[in-house]
Amino acid sequence: MGTIRRWMSEHSEVAGILVFILVVIVIGGGAYGISALTGRNSGSGGGTSAPSAAESSTEGSSTESASEESSSAESSSAESSSTAAESQSQTGGTEASPSLGDTIYEQGVYFQLVDEQVTAKIETNLRSVPSTESDDYIVATIYNGDWIRRTGIGHNGWSRVEYNGQVLYAVTSYLSTDGSSSSTPTYQDAGDSVTAKDETNLRTSPDSTDDSNVVGTLTNGTYLTRTGIGSNGWSRLDYNGTEVYAVTNLLTTE
After folding, report:
1. Which residues contact 179 (CB under 8 A, 6 or more apart)?
2. pLDDT of res. 208
3. In sequence order, which residues have a C-beta less than 8 Å from that of residue 11 and are 6 or more positions away?
């Protein structure tokens, strides 16, 4: 130790340099230790440090899960739309037209569909609605021998018919499919001269179910004496001394 002091005393300038170098080394080593400690503390805290591998994995899994949920929702929406479209296609398409024997609901009446020719048993009104409440509903009147098409038979005593392109209604019990009349007609006496509006058959009886009773034809411009106007829609005529009949609405006095 004494030797060291003696050497330092003899070489004071060299000793000062060595002490300076030593101080620098000590201070530098301390600063390095503090920096390393600070770096470790910064790495273990929150704030601005980069996410760890585990955190990155968790965030990736969360994003992936959200993407899967969105994809699942879109798929479910697409399936719902497809199901709705399919249901609409099955129920919303054009319905098949009703056929004979089917039942339709019209004007408050259930009609079973038919397709047949009918005539009036007696003078029968054709109405725009199946009701007798007002004569304003009357569109036309038919008589025995006037044939029209019946398209439906109602549950309440009305028939659905077609007349001159119109859908009208008549009391079912007043109609006949065989041309028969419901009662013996009465004839009001007449003595006028009539001719056919166009051309009409003259028959030995007021019945148009077949042509076996046709004895002649009356054309426009040829006049016959009418002796009676029947309640059944027929007129009684004198045809060369023979009593014949013709449909009243096919005759005219003009």
Report:
1. 119, 144, 145, 207, 208, 209
2. 77
3. none
| Location of structure tokens 């119109």 | 166
Over residues 147-171, the pLDDT tens digits come to 999 999 998 889 999 999 999 999 9
Strand-strand pairing, 224-230 and 234-239: antiparallel
* DSSP structure class, residue 180: -
| Beta bridge pairs of residue 239 | 242
Q: 44-95 pLDDT, tens per residue?
A: 444 444 444 444 444 444 445 444 444 444 555 445 444 444 444 444 455 6
Tokens for 142, please give them.
Answer: 């038919």
Neighbouring residues of 196: CB distance < 8 A, sequence distance ≥ 6: 218, 219, 220, 222, 246, 250, 251, 252
Identical topology for domains 103-176 and 187-252: yes
Contact of 247 with 142, CB cutoff 8 Å: no
As a whole number of angstroms, the distance between CA 138 and CA 153 comes to 19
CATH number assigned to the domain covering 103-176: 2.30.30.40
Structural element, H or E, at residue 82: helix 53-91
DSSP 164: T
Please report, for the chain, the start and end positions of each structural domain, with discontinuous segments joined by +: 103-176, 187-252
| Contact call for residues 248 and 220 (beta carbons, < 8 A) | no
- The class that CATH gives domain 187-252 is mainly beta
Closest CA to 35 of 45, 46, 27: 27
Residue 217, SS3 per DSSP: strand
Burial of 170 (0-12, 13-18, 19+ CB in 10 A): buried
